[in-house]
Amino acid sequence: MSLLHLDNIVKRYDAHLAVDHVSFDIPKGVIFGMLGPNGAGKTSLIRIITTITKADAGTIRFDGEPLDSRHPEQIGYMPEERGLYKKMKVGEQLRYLARLKGLSAETTRKELRYWFDRFAIRDWSGKKIEELSKGMQQKIQFIATVIHRPKLLILDEPFSGLDPINARLIQDEIMQLNREGTTIIFSTHRMEQVEEMCEQIVLINKGRNILYGKVADIRQQFKENLFRISFAEALPAEWPLEPFPLPGVTVRAKDGPTLLVQVDPARDTNGLLQHFINSGRTIRSFQEILPAINDIFIRQVTGEAQPVSNPNQPSISA
Amino acid sequence: MNKLWLIIEREYMTRVKKKSFILTTLLSPLVFVAIMTVPVLLATLSEREEKSIAILDASGTIRPPADSNSHLHFTVIRDQHLDVLKMTYRDGGFEGILYVPPFPDTVRNLRVQYFSDGELSLSEADYMEGLVRNQAEDFKILAAGYQEAELARLKVRVDLEQKELTLAESGELLETDKRNSAQVATVIGFAAGFIVYIILLFYGTMIMRSVMEEKTNRIVEVMISSVRPFQLMLGKIIGVSGVGLTQMLIWVALTLALTTLAGTFLGVEAATGGPMSADPAPADQSAALFTMLTGQEWDYIIPLFLLYFLGGYFIYASLFAAVGSAMGDDLGESQSLTMVAMAPIILSIVMLGPVIEDPNGTLAVWFSIVPLSAPVIMPARLAFEPPLWEILLSLGLLSASSLFFIWLSGRIYRVGILLYGKKANLKEMSRWIFTKD
Fold first, then answer.
1. ipTM of this model?
2. Which end of chain B is less enclosed by CB atoms within 10 A, N or C?
3. What is the pLDDT of residue A202?
4. Do A77 and B228 count as a contact with CB atoms less than 8 A apart?
């Protein structure tokens, strides 16, 4: 069942069409990546979902109901540009933001205790925000976003400015919340995180939805039937033979003991393996190369095919 | 509603707990009362000191006053030369020399001189002028053929009592004592106008800076994913108005308490209600001013003053909030926008002088009815007791326009706070009023 359903959303600022008939659906409990270059309309969409602004046209259903002003209490939103009241103390600040999300004083106290213990920051409560380091402030910001246990968590570049340790900590918390049933919209430019965390994505460009679906399906959809074969020993200089003796197979690259080949989708890859086995060389690995989301992103946004990645580049190892 | 209250509470508490707030709130009345009482106190203290003054009377007309209840004592000297006395007056125990030259019985303008190494207070100078004037007049009356015994009969003492006439509903004409004097009303008028002016500017810019801070801090995005922008703006305006009211109520209470205290201490209560003496002792004038200030109809002026402050506050606070929301991080480049919000209030303070000069003139009436200037001008007129219908009309217009400006600014604010890195101008801001959410 879907938690959020967008149907033909349009938002216009003066002459500029920021969101152009965007539709997609976010099932309950997924981590959903919202991707797109700067100025694509992601922030406009997020502001519409958080009811900060209204769409000019189209409908949104939240958990089956038409989205209205009661729903923000079930949404947690961490904008990319973060902010807290600098002069306020950590405890006061979190209590204030939690109460504004409709939590009772009692629940707020309980939740605050939970998060302070979880991050081991109980003694920060009386400190002013401006006295904290940037990383510490980010943690407070994260707590402020999730303290009311929202059904939907919208995170805009949640890891920017975080050191690797704190980034890992926040990432673990996000995964934990997701396991507990929170649906997460994750807006980022860091594609390796999208591949690592997101099950589904939507790609927005110039206000339009240009790609939408499960990460695995999309990578399948954009695959180029590339395979990497590694041998036990470096290949002799005359290898591979030109042209390749098997029909429908083209060698794309060669690097020491590794070959990158493209196989016509109509052909069976077993024939290729058979060919190498018959040649007497020892095969160590055989692997299909699926395109990285990063490559798909760039290709879709710039509208031109990118050169195939180097076989040894870690980003294309599936 | 509950959330609005949370915002009001935060905006109020964070400001009231600040050290700077506590200090200015507690110290200002002390300074104010000190400014009022210290001159009286000084005058009283210094003038209690007895002074002996030589009158070198070359005219032969001056007699030392018989019943001097003043601290000034006079000795008339006739057989000395002025230049000699200038050298020796200190040895004779005199503070100074009042030289009265010979004059004919036709004199209209008599110039006398006072020589001393010290200074005279204004009231002391007044007193000596009065003394010589009286005696010179006596001299002229005697010269006109009247007898000495007739002098007292010829003198007239005049006291001016002000009575206010009002027509009761029964048709009966009522008379009440009016202790007001134009002088006191002028002082109160200027003070009231300036206080409103300063406080409106102070709290207005406070709101503006606070809005800008939230915007540049980006906290505003977090906030408006929980509450409506209008709630945030309204909560801030109401919360800060509470701060202003708290401050003023403490000021009023402290000032009243301190004034009463100072009054008792100075013993000026004795003069309360009495008309100013025709033959005033030197310290009396400032003491009388003091007494009249404490004798004002504060129970009528203060509540109205607070109402005008609140009305003006809501108008200017919302204007400043709108301006703050449209600004970028750079204060400098948005100076012109700030000026737009400040222009009407500055115009009002410029009009303050002319208005008080003619407190019931056309100018005064118009400026106290137009809502943008009424908060400064009407409080300045209150001590002159403007007609009730003018007060009601201007209060009505003021409250209606407060609501209008809050609405208007809310429209601008909701668009402004979400726009970054864009320089907004007036034309653009006025378009925001009509854009959809």
1. 0.80
2. N
3. 92
4. no
User: In the prediction, which pLDDT does B258 show?
Assistant: 82
The Cβ-side half-sphere exposure at B381, using a 13 Å CA radius, reads: 31
Instruction: Count, in order, helices (H) and strands (E) of chain A.
Output: 9, 14
Q: Could you tell me the two tokens for B215?
A: 């915007």
Q: Cβ separation of A100 and B6 shorter than 8 Å?
A: yes
Q: pLDDT confidence of B296, banded at 50, 70, 90?
A: low
The Cα B94–Cα B109 span in angstroms is 27
Q: What is the predicted pLDDT for the residue at B327?
A: 82
Residue of A nearest to B213 (CA): A85
User: Rounded to two decimals, what is the model's pTM?
Assistant: 0.73
Q: Return the pLDDT at B278.
A: 36
Assess contact for A291 and A305: CB atoms under 8 A. Answer: no
How many other β-carbons are positioned within 10 Å of the β-carbon of residue B17?
A: 9
CA separation for the pair A32, A198 (Å, rounded): 5
Q: What are A103-112's pLDDT values in tens digits?
A: 999 999 999 9
How far apart CA A102 and CA B2 sit, in angstroms, is 9
CA distance A75 to A88: 24
Chain A residues with CB under 8 Å of B225 CB are 50-52, 72, 75, 77, 79
The number of beta carbons lying within 10 Å of the beta carbon of residue A214 is 14
Compare CB distances from B221 to A75, A83, A88 and report the shortest one's residue.
Answer: A83
**A52·B223 Cβ contact <8 A:** no
- pLDDT averaged over every residue in chain A: 86
CA B249 to chain centre: 17
What DSSP letter does each residue of A32-89 carry, written as one string? Answer: EEEE--TTSSHHHHHHHHTTSS--SEEEEEETTEE--TTGGGGEEEE-SS----TTSB
pLDDT digits (tens, 9 = 90+) for B309-331: 999 999 999 999 999 888 866 66
E strands of chain A, at which residues? 2-13, 16-27, 31-35, 57-62, 65-66, 75-78, 152-156, 183-187, 200-205, 208-214, 226-231, 249-255, 258-263, 283-289
Nearest to B217 among A53, A54, A83 (CB): A83
DSSP code, position B149? G
Residues of B at the A interface (Cβ-Cβ below 8 Å)?
3, 6-7, 10, 14, 214, 217-228, 418, 420, 436-437
Position A98 confidence tier, pLDDT thresholds 50, 70, 90: very high
CA distance A158 to A174: 10
Specify the long-range contacts of residues B142-146, CB closer than 8 Å, at least 24 apart: B143/B105, B144/B105
Per-residue model confidence as pLDDT tens digits over B24-51: 898 988 887 787 777 767 766 665 677 8
CA-to-CA distance for A54 and B224, rounded, in angstroms? 13
CA dist B224 and B67 (Å) reads 79
